[in-house]
């Protein structure tokens, strides 16, 4: 009975998108359909997580075609966690977008376009998390990317069109790498099923395995925005409307991270590229946060911190231990919620203060103390201040790194270098965010004109950045949605013990993928 729920997480958003398109002239009906669909997915994802955590993973053969001949949908603990977190975030951001749309008469998010595209994006994200074969994973990516092209260019401004063109080109290159890798893998092994590949891939020559492995990592690395494949992100995400930017920042890169986890733990579990991943993780941390230091615009600053903190997840994947994977899963959940929250808060700041640059904002603490709190809490969280989830996730990763260094003295120096890079990155993140808070919130409004400070000495405005915009009303629905996500980020700390326990059980499944493989192919298939 529970297995019947699995396809619904994809079917409901697709049917909802079709319904929203038909209801293009009825705004309230569209908003009701979109909200109801994502609320239903939240409920289904909660049930699936409870079921798989209490028992075994769930595999569904679509159309009753057995794997590998048909499409198989698989939900294990990791898939269920990602489904639930992404569904909650998508629902809250949708409520935020509805509030913004009603207040602005849908200029930023035209209802007839936004809601169908948003639901299609959701379907693509959900499909990627439950895909049991590489081609279905590719389909999930393409579904979400096709919708993201539309969402990124909403409004049709020149800045958004330029950013959209860059995003489309990079996405197409990534898709080309991914599709080429699938074709080569299928040609070499006769299957694209993830579970069956874990059995067959080891029979290939080592150099062939390495080529296929690197092709997948390049494709997923572009999607996850790891260095040096992250150049496109800071110029693409900040131009979109606030709710779109929030979803992109919170979820889309994590789909790439999820794909890397599956690649490393199931498909190529016997081939060790941990040193390469560790170097990439460390460089992603450092290069990303150095870019954030030079930004005056908070949207670009957050985009660079987004890139930087992907490095922590790559580091945890590179460790390959159960503790490292558990900390990575916990950190992914933390980062999805916190990064989304910060971008939603930035949308409120832009409406209330009329700008997003620290050169044009001041006095917000006095004008809106609640908005100051909404930004301050997730900022401290992302910066890794105890006892927030950002600190707990980083502490888990560093502890796992220390254990790995003790177990393998030959590579211990590299592990400690990356741990040091992670600690420095966390401090710089905190500095960059508190600098913005001090300038935008703490500084008095009367000090704005002619204000000089060493904090502003090295920051740069966004390329072709817009001048100060007019302030707008801040609907209660937008504030309420942001507040809900802030509360969720705090709950990640309050319930850190049970959540980390869940992440640890999911990590145990990843370290030993035999249950995943035997579920799809009972008895094993060569």
From TrEMBL:
Q: Which InterPro entries match?
A: CPA3_Na-H_Antiporter_D, NADH_UbQ_OxRdtase, ND/Mrp_TM
**Stretches that traverse the bilayer:** 30-51, 58-75, 81-99, 111-131, 137-155, 167-188, 208-233, 240-261, 273-294, 301-323, 370-393, 413-433, 477-500
Q: How does it sit in the membrane?
A: Multi-pass membrane protein
| Pfam families reported in the protein's UniProt record | Proton_antipo_M (PF00361)
What residues does the NADH:quinone oxidoreductase/Mrp antiporter transmembrane domain cover?
Answer: 131-401
Keywords of this entry: Cell membrane, Membrane, Transmembrane, Transmembrane helix
Q: Where is the protein situated, by its record's location annotation?
A: Cell membrane; Membrane
Q: Which NCBIfam families does its entry note?
A: PRK12665.1
What family is it from? Belongs to the CPA3 antiporters (TC 2.A.63) subunit D family.
Name of the protein this chain belongs to: Na+/H+ antiporter subunit D
């Amino acid at each position: 009975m529970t297995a019947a729920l699995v396809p619904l997480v994809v079917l409901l958003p697709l049917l909802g998108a079709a319904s929203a398109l038909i209801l293009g002239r009825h705004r309230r009906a569209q908003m009701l359909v979109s909200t109801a669909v994502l609320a239903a997915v939240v409920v289904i994802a909660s049930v699936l997580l409870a079921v798989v955590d209490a028992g075994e993973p769930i595999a569904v053969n679509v159309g009753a075609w057995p794997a590998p001949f048909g499409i198989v949908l698989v939900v294990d603990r990791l898939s269920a966690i990602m489904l639930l977190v992404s569904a909650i975030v998508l629902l809250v951001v949708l409520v935020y977008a509805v509030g913004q749309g009603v207040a602005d008469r849908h200029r930023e998010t035209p209802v007839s376009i936004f809601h169908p595209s948003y639901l299609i994006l959701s379907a693509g994200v959900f499909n990627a998390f439950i895909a049991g074969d590489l081609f279905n994973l590719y389909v999930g990516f393409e579904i979400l990317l096709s919708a993201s092209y539309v969402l990124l260019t909403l409004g049709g401004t020149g800045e958004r069109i330029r950013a959209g063109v860059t995003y489309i080109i990079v996405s197409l290159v990534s898709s080309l790498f991914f599709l080429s890798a699938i074709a080569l893998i299928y040609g070499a092994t006769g299957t694209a099923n993830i579970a069956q590949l874990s059995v067959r891939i080891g029979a290939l020559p080592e150099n062939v395995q390495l080529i296929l492995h690197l092709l997948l990592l390049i494709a997923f690395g572009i999607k996850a925005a790891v260095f040096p494949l992250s150049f496109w992100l800071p110029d693409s995400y900040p131009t979109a409307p606030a709710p779109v930017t929030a979803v992109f920042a919170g979820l889309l890169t994590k789909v790439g991270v999820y794909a890397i986890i599956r690649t490393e733990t199931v498909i190529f579990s016997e081939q060790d590229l941990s040193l390469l991943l560790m170097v990439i993780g460390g460089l992603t941390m450092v290069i990303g946060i150095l870019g954030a230091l030079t930004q005056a615009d908070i949207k670009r600053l957050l985009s660079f911190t987004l890139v930087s903190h992907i490095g922590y997840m790559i580091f945890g994947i590179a460790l390959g231990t159960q503790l490292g994977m558990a900390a990575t899963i916990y950190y992914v959940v933390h980062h999805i919620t916190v990064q989304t929250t910060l971008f939603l808060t930035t949308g409120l700041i832009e409406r209330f203060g009329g700008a997003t640059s620290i050169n044009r904002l001041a006095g917000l603490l006095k004008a809106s103390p609640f908005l100051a709190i909404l930004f301050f809490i997730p900022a401290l969280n992302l910066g890794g201040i105890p006892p927030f989830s950002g600190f707990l996730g980083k502490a888990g990763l560093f502890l796992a790194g220390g254990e790995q260094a003790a177990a393998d003295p030959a590579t211990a120096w590299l592990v400690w270098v990356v741990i040091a890079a992670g600690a420095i990155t966390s401090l710089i993140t905190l500095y960059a965010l508190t600098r913005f808070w001090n300038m935008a919130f703490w500084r008095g409004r009367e000090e704005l004109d002619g204000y000089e400070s060493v904090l502003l000495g090295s920051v740069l405005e966004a390329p072709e950045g817009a001048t100060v915009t007019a302030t707008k009303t801040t609907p209660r629905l937008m504030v309420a949605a942001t507040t809900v996500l802030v509360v969720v980020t705090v709950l990640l700390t309050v319930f850190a013990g049970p959540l980390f326990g869940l992440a640890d059980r999911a990590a145990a499944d990843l370290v030993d993928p035999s249950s995943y493989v035997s579920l799809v192919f009972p008895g094993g298939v060569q």
